[in-house]
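User: quick one
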Amino acid sequence: MRTRTKIKGAQAKRMKRSDCPLSCTLDLIGDRWSLLIVRDLLFGRSRYSELAAAGEGIPTNILAQRLKQLEQGGIIERRPSAKPRSRYDYCLTKAGLKLAPAVRALAEWGHSEIAGTRPLPLQARRRK
Amino acid sequence: MRTRTKIKGAQAKRMKRSDCPLSCTLDLIGDRWSLLIVRDLLFGRSRYSELAAAGEGIPTNILAQRLKQLEQGGIIERRPSAKPRSRYDYCLTKAGLKLAPAVRALAEWGHSEIAGTRPLPLQARRRK
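Assistant: Done. Structure below.
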């Protein structure tokens, strides 16, 4: 099972800039959108349409591309949906769930340092 | 003094996608390079040449652009250098220093989840 081993796919190797763990993390999620998708999955969103409806107005081509990258990076999983009108459900892998402290730290920094931000109630939901 | 108030410059407003603190943080540092510069400043690097020599091989045009963005975002400060052969010294502002927990959380995730990464000894140095 992918989530039980460290991420070591061809994708990760191809993009690797150094053996610094911060650099390798940013190779996977160092952009303006990926962690917003992780945030929404932590909050229990699971459908493509729910992720597309995020307040930041993510363009659908970027959403589709980021979902693919996050899946290849072992951070999210796509499953056939049990819900009507939805083809797939997206959820965080065990590795993806472990991004919660980083998401929280970045959000806390933003709320502390950037004017006009609301606090983010970060309570990760359990995987179903 | 800029670092005593929240970041609220024109730059931040122009780029703001929502009032989510994570989104606003990623508006400022959501890319593959900015937090690597923060990492190096946390480790006590301060010269442009030292930052350019990071193991990830940051292109100098990107380094110059990111330094400018980080300065506009209130995360770093540029000062006339006291050292020979260096025009400016860069250092983290108080707001920038507060990114240390987020840098640590992202690095810990990488070391835990990505194969072939070394641990990052994260000890932020004091500002001089």
